[in-house]
Amino acid sequence: MLQACLNGAREARAHPALPVSPRQLAADAAAVAELGVRHLHLHPRDAVGLEVLAGPEVATTVAHVRAAAPQVEIGVTTAAWIVPDPRRRAELVRGWAGLAAGRPDVASVNVHEDGWLDTAEALRAAGIGVELGVFHERAARTLRDTGIPDGTRRVLAEVQPGEGVDQARALLDLLEPLGKPILLHGEDDSAWPVLRLARTLGLDTRIGLEDTLLTEDGTPATGNAHLVDLAS
Length: 232
Known about the structure:
The chain is an alpha/beta fold and 232 residues long. The chain has helices at 22-34, 55-68, 86-94, 116-125, 137-146, 165-175, 191-201, 224-231, and strands at 2-5, 39-42, 73-77, 106-110, 129-134, 152-158, 182-185, 205-207.
């Protein structure tokens, strides 16, 4: 499986083709769906481009994307930097249960963040699948010790910038015994090497402007569809 990560936390000025508004995200979703993508990860924004977890903005973005790519799994973030208070974050996520056509199919929860278990439970209660983000070995050990929360669809092994395939393999050594599907990916300079490793190992992976602005040869990508086409 190749997931397209369309925008992430990047500012609009990071790339001229970075999708921020619901219409832009919908257009990119349609473009990558034409290339065979069936799984999306995106960060909804408000009217001024700031990341949000509030239900109305999440629903508007998801509904636009779903209309443009109706057969695609739509995932969003629950990152703590958007709403640092863990209780408020879980409360907002729990409210997604009533979003109807604007309710995401899955959402990522970062295991190293305060309140991650409460957020995962809020997603489960809202009928939304969980993707567990594991940024480093310490988080992998936390997950191993705590156990996989109910409702988890996959574990995201997320190799950070400046790291590479050795760190990817170290994460996999800790995560594979947990028995859940793993999506392995990198970010910035680790994006392409880790993607190629994932392909070699037969693991799910992802690509998009959230993870890299560059093609594998270091030239600027024209947009999400360009990156997906190169990774396919």
